[in-house]
UniProtKB/TrEMBL annotation:
NCBIfam families in UniProt: hi_GC_TIGR00026
One example GO MF annotation: oxidoreductase activity
InterPro entries documented for this protein: F420H2_quin_Rdtase, Split_barrel_FMN-bd
Protein source organism: Amycolatopsis acidiphila
Gene3D superfamilies: Electron Transport, Fmn-binding Protein, Chain A
Protein name: Nitroreductase family deazaflavin-dependent oxidoreductase
Length: 149
């Protein structure tokens, strides 16, 4: 089995995440920030994490720049989640994309948030070739967000 890519947050990053999450919970989205709520795959408890919601060509996406994080694993099992900004709640169903679909989305994600997430892309940026983005795609889960039925 291939090694699963995951970059654990450092203490300073945890503080930044907590700040972004607090602001977003109180209705202040920072460049598309949302608080993702998803049921824990083992505990069944609601878990939360700040994420960047990307809108591209009329669809919404979540990209996991740190790789196969706990929220990614939980979302895969739960098959549903919520994105919140303040009191606004958007229930959704995720559709995980295949690696061949990711290069254009990774490029767009890096255009918008490289200043925030570039350190997790090992020098790859929005100017990388499609081939390079396809090469790194397996390490970056991407979900299309569909309204909950």
């Amino acid at each position: 089995m291939d090694e699963v890519r995951y970059i654990q947050p450092r203490k300073a990053e945890q503080l930044l995440h907590a700040t972004v999450q607090w602001l977003t919970r109180h209705g202040m989205s920072l460049m598309g920030s949302r608080v993702l709520y998803v049921r824990g795959r083992k505990s069944g408890e609601l878990r939360s994490n700040p994420v960047n919601l990307m809108v591209f060509e009329g669809s919404q996406y979540l990209v996991a720049p740190r790789g196969t994080t706990q929220w990614v694993r939980n979302l895969r099992v739960a098959g549903e989640g919520e994105l919140r900004v303040g009191r606004r709640v958007e229930r959704f169903e995720p559709v995980e994309l295949g690696d061949d679909e990711k290069p254009v989305l990774l490029r767009e994600y890096l255009k918008r948030w490289k200043w925030e997430v570039g350190m997790f892309f090992d020098g790859v940026d929005a100017t990388a070739s499609d081939e390079k983005l396809r090469e790194i795609a397996p390490g970056y889960p991407v979900f299309r967000i569909l309204p909950a039925r």
